[in-house]
Amino acid sequence: MTKKSGLILFALLILTVGVIFIGQNYQKKQKSELLAANNSYQKNEEKEMKETSKSESFEENRNQKSVIEYLSSLPTDDEMRSVSFYGDFSESDEWFLSVGDYIKEQVDDRIEIGSVALPEFDSYRLFEENTASSLIEKKPAIVFFQVPVYGDQVRDISLSDSKDYTMKAYETIKQALPETLIVFVTPHPSSSRKEEYNSRTLDYTSYLKVIKEIIEESNLPLFDLHEAYETELQSTDLALEKTLAEDGKTLNNEGNAIYTTLFNEQLTVPIDTTSGK
User: Fold this and answer.
1) Which of 74, 95, 180, 196 has its CA 20 to 30 A from that of 63?
2) Which regions are flagged for Basic and acidic residues bias (predicted)?
């Protein structure tokens, strides 16, 4: 073999080894990319299956799902869910704090409890002062709307105006947050406000009656805690005055305990949640 032939053979050998080496590296790279793509596909598929399963779970029995079940199965992007209380109540009310804690315990800590507390507000002020704007900014998944029947009694407005302004406040929220579930909540009874008639010969129960009627006619969710409270007092033979402060309206410790228990019980009772998301 000549020297020239040897050099050519050596060069071909080097070239062959190089081609084999490059081919092996390319094969490894392709295999690695294929495995990565497969893993990514499996993860996406598992995520989609999980989201589909959660979505199907959420949609199941929507017309007979408790608020706790609704919150627990609610599909979210960031897993953080917000619940807001709105209307005639105070942030210092013991029942408000206790119910918020109960919701977190029953669902999980990824629940944010918010509030737009407007004590003694009437339905006219709720609507005309655009109080819903503060609520809308929070974008809650659920709103508990404490109906302002005591405020309407004091403002001395007509029953038709009370009904109209309450529903206008509701519609303002719903138009801005169409996927939010809004649950109307009636207040506890009052011994001092009952039969304390205004110039229209109406007391707070008069306003309460028409509000309940329009809510029921509209097939909207309602926690009628006023009626539940009265039923509880009758079943335990307990006087209303024993559960209220001296003003005959503010709940005392016993009253707060009753209202909290009734609210928490309603959270686990199946209702029609189809007006939500």
Assistant:
1) 95
2) 43-61
For 3, the token pair is: 């020297």
Angstrom distance (rounded) from CA 53 to CA 158:
49
**Phi-psi bin for 238: left (phi > 0), alpha (psi -120 to 50), beta?**
beta
Q: Considering the chain, what is the average pLDDT of its residues?
A: 88
pLDDT tens for the 277 residues of the chain, in order: 565 566 566 566 666 655 565 666 666 666 667 666 666 556 556 545 544 455 565 677 788 899 999 999 888 766 688 999 999 999 999 999 999 999 999 998 789 999 999 999 999 999 999 999 999 999 999 999 999 999 999 999 999 999 999 999 999 999 999 999 999 999 999 999 999 999 999 999 999 999 999 999 999 999 999 999 999 999 999 999 999 999 999 999 999 999 999 999 999 999 999 998 7
Distance CA 33, CA 39 (A): 10
Structure token pair of residue 154: 């004091």
Q: Which two tokens stand for residue 252?
A: 């005392």
Euclidean distance between CA atoms 260 and 99, whole angstroms? 6
Bridge partners of residue 117, in order along the sequence: 87
What's the one-letter identity of residue 23?
A: G
Tokens of residue 202, six digits: 């109406």
Nearest to 83 by CA among 141, 41, 44: 141
- Give the other-Cβ count within 10 Å of 13's Cβ: 10
Distance CA 223, CA 185 (A): 5
Distances in Å between the alpha carbon of 209 and those of 144, 152, 270? 19, 12, 23
> Which uninterrupted H or E stretch holds 86?
strand 81-87
Distance between start and end Cα atoms, the chain = 85
- Integer Cα distance of 251 and 228 in angstroms: 15
